[in-house]
Each structure stands twice: as C-alpha cells, then as structure tokens.
Automatic annotation (TrEMBL), chains A, B, C, D:
The gene is phi. It comes from the Bacteria. Transmembrane segments: none annotated. GO terms for molecular function: carbohydrate derivative binding; isomerase activity. Gene3D superfamilies: Glucose-6-phosphate isomerase like protein, domain 1. This is 6-phospho-3-hexuloisomerase. It comes from Methylothermus subterraneus. PROSITE patterns: SIS. Residues 27-167 form the SIS domain. InterPro entries: PHI/rmpB, SIS_dom, SIS_dom_sf. Keywords: Isomerase. It holds the Pfam family SIS.
C-alpha cells in the first residue's frame, strides 16, 4: 500500500486500539437516554460533528450540529456531545457550561485525559492516551485526533445499527432527496 | 439619510409596493397545509433561505434549509419553497422536479414572470414586476431581488406571528442556546 | 403596501435615519487600510456577515467570514468586523480579544452604545440609538438590528462601488461560477 | 479492538490497498499545475471536500470548497476536483461541464469505473474497484466510499508535506485563529 495511506491508517489503528472497547456501548446508552442530541466542534472537529449527526438522523435520532439554521434550544434531558482534541476550545467551554446549567448531560470526546471541558463534562471519552499524539511528520496539527474521533464515531453508528438492527433501507428513507 | 441607504431602501420599497398584497396570506396557507417545509436557494438567495427557515422554526414549523446536516427526505404532503431570482438555477430546477415527482408542492419566489422553475412550480410569487429590475449602479447582480425577497419573507413571519398571535417569549424559547 | 412589509421597512428606515451618515465613509477607510478583512457574527447576524463578505470579495477585497473552510489566520494590519446586536456574544468577545492581541483592528457593528465588545473595539458603529429597539410585535428577537445592519452594509457596498467606480461586470467576473 | 472499529478500518484498508499507489503523485502534479483548486461534493462527500480544502490552504495552495462565501469564479488554468461516489450527482455534472467549458481541468474521485462525470473529467481516480463496495451491514449508504476518499486525501496531504518538506509550524501559521 502507498506509504502515506499506511502512515494514516496505522496511526488511527494504533490510537483506536488504545481506546477502551466499551465506549460505543456507553455512548449508545447516553444517546438513547437523551431526548435530543447536540454535537459541537470547531474547525475540522466541526466536520466530524456533521458526519456523525447526519448518520444519527438517518438512524432515527433527534440530533443537531451546533451552528446550523434549525438547531433548537437545548433543554434538561438532552445530551451535548463536545468534540475537542484539546478540551480547551473557548466557545465549547462556554457551551458546555450553559448545557450543564440547563440540566443537559455533557460528554467530551477528546485527546486529553484532563482539560477544562473534561472537568465540566459528565463523561470523558478519551480517544487513545496522552502518549498517542506524539508529532508525526505528514499528520499536522489535530489530524490524528480528528481522524481517530471520526472513525470511532463511524464505529459508534455501526454499533447502533447492529444493536437495534436498523435496515439500511430505513436509514436511506430519511436521507435528503434534494441536493 | 445617507444617500446609499436611501438608494437601497427606496428600491426595496418600490419593488414591494409593486408586489401583490395577498402573497403573505397565500404563502401562510401553503405553509400551514404542509407537513414539513423545505427552502432552497443558491448564493445570497441561500442566505435568505436560512434567515427565513430559522424564524419558521422559532414559530413552531418543521422547516429545513437545503444542504444542512439534518435536512431529511422530502415527502408527499411537504412544501418546497424555491428562492431564485432568475428561476433558472440549475440545481434548483433538478430539485423542483424531484419534489414534484415525490408529490410535494413547489412554490417559487422569483424576480421573473416566466422561468423554467416557474413552469414546474404549483405557485409563483413574483416579487415586483419584470420592469422592477433595471440595472442600478451600486446594487450589483441580484441585490435588488435578494433584499426584496428577504424583506418580503420577514413580513411573512410578521404575518404569521400576528395571525397566530405567537408570543415572542415562545419563539425565544425555541432559539438555539449553544453558540 | 401590505402592512407587514410596511412595518418592517418603516422600522429599518427609522433606525437607519437615526444612524450617523458618515459611517459608510469611516468603514470604507478602515477596510481600505486593512490587508485582510474578517467578519464574524452568530446566528442571523452570521448570515449578515456572509451577505457582506461575498460582496467585499466581488469588489476585490481579501475578505473572509469566520468559521469557513479557507478562512486563514488573522494578522497585525488586518481588520476584524464584529456584528453583534448585544455586543456580548461570548465567542465574539474571545475573538475580539485575540484579534487585538495579534495587532489587528476591531470594529463593532451593534445595537448598543455600550458593551463588552464595544470596550475592546477600536471603533463602535452603533446602528440606531439605544431607544430604537423597543419591542415591536411581529419583529421578534434581534430582527430589527439584523435587518438594519444588513441594509447598512449593503449601503456600505454601494458607497464603495460609487467611490471606486467599480463596474458591475468586474464584480460579476469574480462571482462563483460553480454552484 | 472493538469489532465495529475493526469493521470500519478493515474495509477502508482493503479499499485503499486496491487503489493504485501512484494516485497521490498524480494528484499532486495536477494540483501544482493549477492556479486555483476548487473541490466539490454533496452531503458527506461535501464534508470530505472541506477536510481536504482546509489542509490545502494550510499547505499554501489557493483552494476553495464549492458553496462557501468567498469561493470565486473558476477560470482556465484552474483545477476542479469532484468527489462523488456514484459520479452521477446532478449539480456536480452541471458544474463539471461548466468547468470544462471555461477551460479548467476536471478530476473525479469516485467509487465507479464509469460514470457521467467520469466521461466529462480529464482524469478519474477510482478509489478501490467496482467490487469493493458490496453492502456491509453497519456501513450504510456511501460510508465506505466517503471514508476511503477521506483517508486517501489525508494521505495526499502527507504526500505533499513530505515532497515539499513543509514544516508543521508553517501550516499552523496559516490556520484560523478566530473561532
């Protein structure tokens, strides 16, 4: 295989192998317990957010990405999933505090074992360990975390599909028809 | 008043004065008859779309802007509102055809009395008349249509608020809390 | 004219009549003095941001809306235009502070004579006066500010076009061709 | 490793192992030969687009995602990269034709060996082979293509970084500072 593809895939594989195997099960329970699910991230983590929210919607959940036109008010009983490698993104700190005050649950998906948002959150799902993210030339800035978080969340969708036995046709029927 | 502000406001006022006064009432009936409302536009008309969809959501409607993460499949019984000055935007032609095939209603908000999307649509709401859009230096490209369509749709929201007597506090309670 | 359209237009007209006439000239000088222009707002003020940035790009400026994919780093010598009715939007306070630290200029477009971002900014352009924004049934939440700020910024574009005598054809040649 | 993570990673690995190893080199030559690079996709392929464009910008290219505020006109000498699993996305067919007419190059990244956009494009980079995309329960709709295309494009960035020896610090200096 092309060495750059191998570099990317090996790193994601190493990080996800170092990530507790029960996260998909725990996150499913949190999502199922919530009335509505809000997911927020900045920059490329914001794109990860949208990858995940679209599939949650296809799977039948009431899910929203922060900052979109129809994203409603969060309420007590909802879940706010924060995607932040550092756990220190300014606007997400503010949002996590607001969500807690309102009575929503907050879960942080992050690269760090300890952070400001981690202290606010009800649950912290650390992807890999603190030593997973040594600099690798060719995988600049947050690349390793963003891709690992994305693949974890795709696995999360697979977990939900298998657990609830959701036919692809049912998901497809919810998919946007208008481009 | 600053002459540039006057230029913009005078032109919008002229166009909206030349627009049939019953449009807000007609559009309200179409929206109320629909299960879900989809709104689509390209470029700055796409921004007009989002201005409107957010307030529809605040007013309690199930409304979606095309192209956002949680926008679901359109179905028979839904309404597709197209915002297109020319009525000839390529992707919106395709979308209007799909919406009709599925059994949704299509309404076009446009600057032109006749167009491809106009021929597909169940209803055409022409903003102003064909002679409203002579070139004005300082209001380039689609400016006159985009702003007039926006103010018409803000008036549409005011119409809905008055007709249904929706308290501002109720709308505010649906507004996004997380930034 | 339909009374709801009149309600919206009269309110915008009243607010812009109460707004100093030299703002377009002052803002043009700030934009012309900057290497790059960044514009940020939340919610519907974020849509106003994009209306304005697209026309700045058409007019030949290096302009960016916050949060988009290709928005680069702000640097000393750049201008950050904040659109915030309250002047208290959390993430924009953080951004305004960062911009100042880096050595960029900050200008606030707002509904309030005094605010946290106003205290940080080099210039405050208050749209209307503190008494302009009494509640009006039918114009919920930030509607009056958002529309008045938008029309002011469209007038700003008209000012720039007239001052620099920019042909529409030149602006159109920069407009996106791919939908 | 959690079986769902393994399912996702094994499938991507299988697809990228079946993808010609010289694609990164070929795509680099196309990007380097272009004045400006435009990248377009719909739905989750649109998110892949933005992942890639942001890193191209960090690496010093003039790159744009379709549909964003500051995306300018495409011109002769530019490159249009289309990301479409089916190669049949309606608006992207229209865009690919426009780009060719203007004299830009078009390259398609796709799951199919043959398609409408493939017929228009100067180059087709098929990710995997036609037999790579058998249905897998848990990886609904376009998941396999979207993730494989994304990892390929991250490898593409690694290739560019290594070939041009771009320091991470240089990329970071271009990264957005304002959230």
């Amino acid at each position: 295989m092309n060495p750059h593809r191998k570099l990317v895939l090996d790193k994601i594989t190493e990080i996800l192998a170092a990530t507790p195997d029960d996260y998909e099960d725990r996150l499913t329970k949190m999502i199922d317990a919530a009335d509505q699910v809000f997911v927020g991230g900045q920059g490329r983590s914001g794109l990860v957010t949208k990858f995940f929210v679209m599939r949650l919607m296809h799977a039948g959940y009431k899910a929203f990405a922060l900052g979109e036109t129809v994203t409603p008010a969060i309420r007590a009983g909802d879940l706010f999933i924060v995607i932040s490698g550092s756990g220190e993104t300014g606007s997400l700190i503010t949002n996590a505090k607001k969500a807690k005050e309102i009575g929503a649950k907050v879960v942080l998906i992050t690269a760090k074992s300890s952070s400001t948002i981690g202290d606010i959150a009800d649950e912290v799902l650390q992807i890999g360990t603190d030593s997973s993210y040594q600099k690798v030339f060719g995988l600049p800035m947050g690349t390793m975390f963003e891709l690992s978080a994305l693949i974890f969340l795709e696995a999360q969708i697979s977990h939900v599909i298998h657990e609830k036995n959701i036919p692809e046709e049912e998901m497809r029927s919810r998919h946007a028809v208008l481009e």
